[in-house]
Amino acid sequence: MSSPHLAPPLDVELRPGRTPLLPVEPTSDAAGWTAQHRDGLRGVVAQHGAVLVRGLGLRDAAEAAAVFQHLGLGLMAEREAFAPRQTYVEGVYSSTKWPANQPMCMHHELSYTLEVPSLMLFACITPPAAGGATGVADSTAVMNQLPPDLVQRFAREGWMLVRNYNDEIGASYADAFGTDDRGAVEAYCAANAIAVEWRPDGGLRTRQRRHALVGHPVTGQACWFNQIAFLNEWTMDPDVHEYLVEAYGADNLPFTTCFGNGEPVGADVVELLNQVYEANTLREPWQAGDLLLVDNVRTAHSREPYEGAREVVVGMSAPLRMPVPGAVR
Length: 329
Known about the structure:
The chain has a domain at 141-274: Double-stranded beta-helix (4-Layer Sandwich). 25% of the residues lie in helices and 27% in strands. The chain has helices spanning 30-36, 38-48, 61-70, 139-144, 148-157, 173-177, 182-191, 238-248, 267-279, and strands at 21-23, 50-54, 87-89, 92-94, 104-107, 115-126, 130-131, 136-138, 159-165, 195-198, 204-210, 213-215, 222-224, 255-259, 281-282, 291-295, 299-303, 306-307, 311-321. The strands form five sheets. Strands 1-2-16-6-19-4-3 form a seven-stranded mixed sheet, with helices on one face. The protein has a four-stranded antiparallel sheet with strand order 5-17-8-15. The protein has a four-stranded antiparallel sheet with strand order 10-11-9-14. Helix 1 (30-36) packs parallel to helix 3. The chain starts with 20 loop residues before the first strand and ends in an 8-residue tail after the last strand.
């Protein structure tokens, strides 16, 4: 006989091309509901890789933060940000500031760092007038549809992120590392396998090599886990790319990605990656009050272009330490 104190099982709707959906009865205590169903929600995410919970009616960042915290997995402070965010409370942020008319293609959050969130939490406070869905894609399915020789090369070499920080575009190094003290930045980078090069103009260039494939922390399943396409120069809007090359030079773009040996990743590879991501994307338009939970290792996520105001609150949870593939030479 089941205990009356156990929460009822969660009934997820699976629909072709759509994010797994969990409709729930409206409640005035979203945080309490989340605490009651915490184990069930974790189980759903483990089973499906992502789930959109609809019906909680989350109204503001404070209510979203309470829900995130009641999941009981610990919220992380973001480090090495590539674009600004607003901080609501510790570990709870606005979406990344990114032009509304430009997509943010599939990626695994902070997969260029050594401490990554294994769970991403999103709460929609204000849905956009059009577009703006947060798509999800199973990383193992993506990997299995890529050319084997390409996957094997990334498995051997890993991938490299090259960043050029300045005070004019994107996040400054003070934004990314939380300090403008060069010694503190160098200490952080040394502890996190990041090569540092101070530029004559006072800017900073960093290089960091990371694994492109990792084993899932629970299942051990190999997962395509990186931001090779998202942070590559060829994913930029062509007009933006042309402007940045003219303004800063081809070697001084805010970011780009390479193979692990430092060889540039070409536009053809980036296009192929984005095509395979798109073929495996599930999406569900946001509604006000929605909660989206994403297994950040197993599942990539994106943000589509949108019109109108859009407020989505973000939390990063359940930190996972990644192995270092080797020193950058």
